[in-house]
């Protein structure tokens, strides 16, 4: 059975940069489908990459310790295509803000 393609929109993207001491660039927030406010999505640069691409890390809570440590995400996309669209929208916002230098 095929998945029904639903309407998807992302708007009002905001980005708060942080000190670059690691791959963490800052945090993004946005409005999803004019109905949900998504906050505190960590934006990381891709390690060893000169591309203007980022990796998104969704808010979550660590569970367990050591090798058994896992994360319980508060929210995250279940569809990889939706996550890709969100990632591209965040990258476009960073480009617009002049975050990526030529």
Fraction in beta strands: 35-45%
Oligomer: single chain
Annotated CATH homologous superfamily: Stage V sporulation protein G
Radius of gyration: 15 Å
CATH architecture, please?
2-Layer Sandwich
Terminal CA distance reads 45 Å
Q: What coarse outline follows from CA principal-axis ratios? A: globular
Strand order of the largest sheet: 1-2-3-4
Domain count, please report it. 1
Mean pLDDT: 86
**Overall helicity:** 10-25%
CATH topology: Arylsulfatase, C-terminal domain
The helix count comes to 1
Q: What string, H for helix and E for strand, traces the elements in order? A: EEEEEEH
Total count of strands = 6
Largest sheet: 4 strands, antiparallel
Structural class: alpha+beta
Describe the protein's architecture and organization.
- This protein is 17% helix and 38% strand.
- The protein is globular.
- It has a single domain, classed as 2-Layer Sandwich (Arylsulfatase, C-terminal domain).
- The protein has a four-stranded antiparallel sheet, with helices on one face. The protein has a two-stranded antiparallel sheet with strand order 5-6.
- The model has no long low-confidence stretch (mean pLDDT 86).
- The longest helix has 17 residues, at 80-96.
- By secondary structure, the protein is of the alpha+beta class.
- Strand 3 and strand 4 (54-57) form a beta hairpin.
- It contains one helix and six strands.
